[in-house]
Amino acid sequence: MTFWIWVFGAIYAGLLIFASFKSYKKGRTAEDFMMAGSNIGLALGVLTFAAALFSTFTFLGMPDFFRVNGIAAWVFLAVSDGAMVFFIIWFGYHVRRKAKKLGFRGVAGMIGTCYGNKWAGYTIFLSAFLFLIPYVGIQIQGIAIFMNAAFPNSLPAWGWSAFIVSIMLVYSEIGGLKAIIYSDAIQGLLLLVVIWIIGLYSLSHFGGITPMFEKVSQIDAALLSSPGPKALLTPQFLLASLIVIVMIPVTQPQFTTRLIVMKSTKTMHYMAVTLGAFAILVITPTIFIGMYGVDKYAEVGREEFFAKAFLYDQPSFVAALAVIGLIAAGLSTTNAQIFALGSELRGLLKGDEKSIMFKTKVGIFVFSVIALIFSVIVIDQLVLLARVSFTGTALMGPMILLGILSDKKISKGMILSSFLALIIFLASLAGYIADEFLGIRLDLILLGLLALASLTFYFSSKEKIDKAL
Fold first, then answer.
1. Domain 2-377 coded CATH 3.40.50.1000
2. pLDDT tens digits, residue range 275-296?
């Protein structure tokens, strides 16, 4: 396997170098660096969005999720992603129209302008920082642990983490967002190929789809129904997950930016529909791998299951592709999120463009170092923040949607409501507040209250924003 890792690793590194220098232009503007010239076509658009959406979690999380919780996870994943596709078509139109009117320097900057209040932007940035940085750190740590296991006695886990962050910084600082989008395209194609090779191998173990489900039914019939053997996939869990996933294009800045940089609204719509097909193609083979794990590795932990199903049970060249695919997935996702935080910071800064860009690049470096530190020194609170990353940022959804859709001057009360919801959610993660009241999940309660608050503040405001300004 080592030989093939070096071969595929060299090819992947060469493609990254090519992407970096292809994206580099002398005398380029800040718009070129941060927004990739806003001329991304359909193919690149689909692959960069898919790579940011289906990354390390696809390799490490989705097969294990099916293995542990059963086939009802399809509702959690495929149905929610399908709903998100339709939401992208609607939301993408409105956010692009708003960006054309106000300009786009990150979601925080644009929403601060929509509300005419800098604290709106600060609240969104705080939420993104609190939940995305730990998420990035945990992903870096996962790759580092796996690389340390694949190459024992070569580098310690922290050395692999530093190596990954260094690569990430180099090609993003050279090529900007365009280089990241090119690397996303590479990762998206690699992900699709590897996951199907291993998925088909897993399916061949049973001899077909029907025998697969028959065998799983004999092992544990609860795996073939909701809420699953762990009773996780309850109606409340599925509803909360649906809302959180649908809100990803709104509240995760790396995805909002990708909607903005599409060369036209029509291209963006085609991208959303094609993304739905890509999602089904990615999720389907992870079911086969998960069911394979049910049959052969039901009693082992996640790491051992991954090592056996993706490495030890595969031909050496497939195992090597899986290793490179995992590295590519981790780099793609972490770089997209760190770069997005830099874009959010840029939108909050004032001054001349040269000074702002210097501070933005410094910010990207600082965010990367913080994520590296988190990946080395992981504590329970950081793991919790990472696990609920999408839920935490989703709390900003009502405020963001209100700012984008409204043509009125909205009360500061919406900003305060969103900030308080963020504090309450953090307190529940720390154990100071219960995560359920009257049998209803706290995240559903907070999202419902924020949605109600947004409607209240909208209808209670009569002054047009143009007049207010």
1. no
2. 999 999 999 999 999 999 999 9
